[in-house]
């Protein structure tokens, strides 16, 4: 069994400019990829194809990456890493319904323990304006993990969905929690500024 496999981890830095930028600007500048280790593939070829898909995604070659991920999935159809990567791949191509399908499958296969898929699902619900589902899935993650990296992103994605649903007070509570507990983590300073701006707009619209 081969260990140390690549998974793309979408962070909140995608949020602030996505709606105001061209697809090329967003893909090249605003997404963040994080390589995580520790997931396992039973088949070496499936692992290699997943890593090829990750490398292609990092360079913005999303359609080519999708082919590699799907080939990997044919070999190991129940691998949550590949399913989650396909979800992110579809998200970056603005194919939100397909992204949701792959994220949900990854989470189902993992018995709701593959929280990276869930927090990315929460962000996808935000862009789909399905804010209640976004709040539900991120709340589940918050209540079921102690991983600080996952938690910081889950709180950020939940705050976004609260803002989208005009729950400004609850978004403010999450933002204060992020400031108190995750300020020194990667991208969190940016996330705080972004959420502050969105929260101020939420308050202005809902005095």
TrEMBL record:
- One Pfam family hit: TPR_8
The record's annotation in SMART domains points to: TPR (SM00028)
Q: Does the keyword Membrane belong to this entry?
A: no
TPR repeat residue intervals: 46-79, 80-113
Give the InterPro entries listed for this entry. TPR-like_helical_dom_sf, TPR_rpt
SUPFAM superfamilies xref list: TPR-like (SSF48452)
**Superkingdom, natural source:** Bacteria
Q: Which UniProt keywords apply?
A: TPR repeat
Name-wise, this protein is Tetratricopeptide repeat protein
Species whose genome carries this gene: Cellulophaga geojensis KL-A
Q: What is the lineage of its organism?
A: Bacteria, Pseudomonadati, Bacteroidota, Flavobacteriia, Flavobacteriales
